[in-house]
Every structure is written in C-alpha cells, then in structure tokens.
Amino acid sequence: MNIRLAKRSEKQTVIEMVNDVYYTSERKFWSEGYYRIDENDFERYIANDWLFVCVDADDSLVGCVLFKQESEDTTSFSML
Which residues, in sequence order, are CB contacts of 70 under 8 Å at separation 6+? Predict the structure, then answer.
C-alpha cells in the first residue's frame, strides 16, 4: 500500500467511493441531496494538495483522507 496525493484523473472514483460509503453507513444523518464530497470540493482539495489517497500495488484506490491546512500552524484531518 502507498499513500500519495490524489490525481485529477481519479475524480469520479474518489467521489463515488466516498459518497457510496457515507450513504451506506450514515444515510440517516444526511438530508436529501447531500453529498459528502462533490466535484467542486474535489477540485478545491486537489488545487490545495489536501486530498491523499491510499492505493494498492496495482495503483487501485482503497481509501482517501483529507488534510486541510486551516492556518499556518493548524491542519485538520477528515476521513472522507
């Protein structure tokens, strides 16, 4: 397994994976039309180098995480 920055070419895979997992496990908390991540979120995360993916030996995605720089000395961590 390796961890690296996400690539733009992985947009659909990441968005579908994240939203499928959250819909399955937390749908009772979601309002109609809510998505954990959408295309705008993905683009913002990629532009800021915040979105990291875990890939297997074949470079297939197995998970992702967001490290968001909130300020010079503060970074937030989100399981997507």
Answer: 76
Q: Domains (ranges, CATH) in the chain?
A: 2-79 (3.40.630.30)
Torsion of CA 65, 25, 22, 3, to 10 degrees: 20
For residues 80 and 65, is the Cβ–Cβ distance under 8 A?
yes
What is the value of pTM for the model shown?
A: 0.81
Q: What is the pLDDT of residues 40-74, one digit of tens each?
A: 999 999 999 999 999 999 989 999 999 998 999 99
**Residue 30: CB atoms within 10 Å:** 13
